[in-house]
Amino acid sequence: MSNEAWLVFGLGNPGPKYETTRHNIGQMVIAELASRIGTTLTRTKLRANVGTGRLSAGSVPGLPGPRVVLATSTGYMNESGGPVRALADFYGIDTDRIIAVHDDVDIPFDAIKAKRGGGEGGHNGLRSMTSVLGTKDYLRVRAGVGRPPGRQDTADYVLRPFTKDERTTLPIFVSDLVDGVEELINNGLTDMQQKFHSR
């Protein structure tokens, strides 16, 4: 049985080796969103770190907004689908209320895009989610990290930390991504796209 909660899943890899890398920006967004709504992530048997709470109601300050389940995987990127499926089943969340937050090399650093469905663009976390969920029809909030310079391998590039220049604006970028997730949940995909695609 479905309910009105949303599952916001930040893609990334576990452990301190990866936590500051481009590939983990989705997990950075979840950490910031958890802080904003006053919850903490706790390791669970669902192969995920999970926190629950409510967003603000957006245009009506002070009123409780939509219920959210925030999560990151305790496993590696290419195994993301299993925890997402387990969380959706446990909390009774339909696929159309699942949001994957992930890095995207096909858009410039600091750009934010959102869509429902589409391809995986070579992203192993999305590929795993699509395979296990049996559909591409979930929402994605795409955090631009840009293309690797020169002939650097893409897989190597996303597993490296942000540059010094990028780190100066990264906190604002992550905060804007959190704003984008909240806008998506409170006001829908079209409004989010209009507000954030051209920011």
Automatic annotation (TrEMBL):
Which UniProt keyword terms apply here?
A: Cytoplasm, Hydrolase, RNA-binding, tRNA-binding
The enzyme's E.C. designation: 3.1.1.29
Its UniProt entry gives the catalysed reaction(s) as: an N-acyl-L-alpha-aminoacyl-tRNA + H2O = an N-acyl-L-amino acid + a tRNA + H(+)
Q: Where in the cell is it found?
A: Cytoplasm
- Which top-level enzyme class is recorded in the Swiss-Prot or TrEMBL entry? hydrolase
Q: Where is this site: Discriminates between blocked and unblocked aminoacyl-tRNA?
A: N13
Pfam families given in the database record: Pept_tRNA_hydro (PF01195)
Q: Which InterPro entries match?
A: Pept_tRNA_hydro, Pept_tRNA_hydro_CS, Pept_tRNA_hydro_sf
Catalytic residues? H23
List the molecular function annotations (GO) for this entry. Answer: peptidyl-tRNA hydrolase activity; tRNA binding
Cellular component aspect of the GO annotation: cytoplasm
Q: Which residues bind tRNA?
A: Y18, Y76, N78, N124
Source superkingdom: Bacteria
Q: Where is this site: Stabilizes the basic form of H active site to accept a proton?
A: D103
Any single biological process term in GO: rescue of stalled ribosome
User: Subunit arrangement?
Assistant: Monomer.
Functionally, this protein is described as follows:
Catalyzes the release of premature peptidyl moieties from peptidyl-tRNA molecules trapped in stalled 50S ribosomal subunits, and thus maintains levels of free tRNAs and 50S ribosomes.
Similarity remark: Belongs to the PTH family.
Q: What is this protein called?
A: Peptidyl-tRNA hydrolase
The major lineage groups are: Bacteria, Bacillati, Actinomycetota, Actinomycetes, Micrococcales
Q: Gene behind this chain?
A: pth
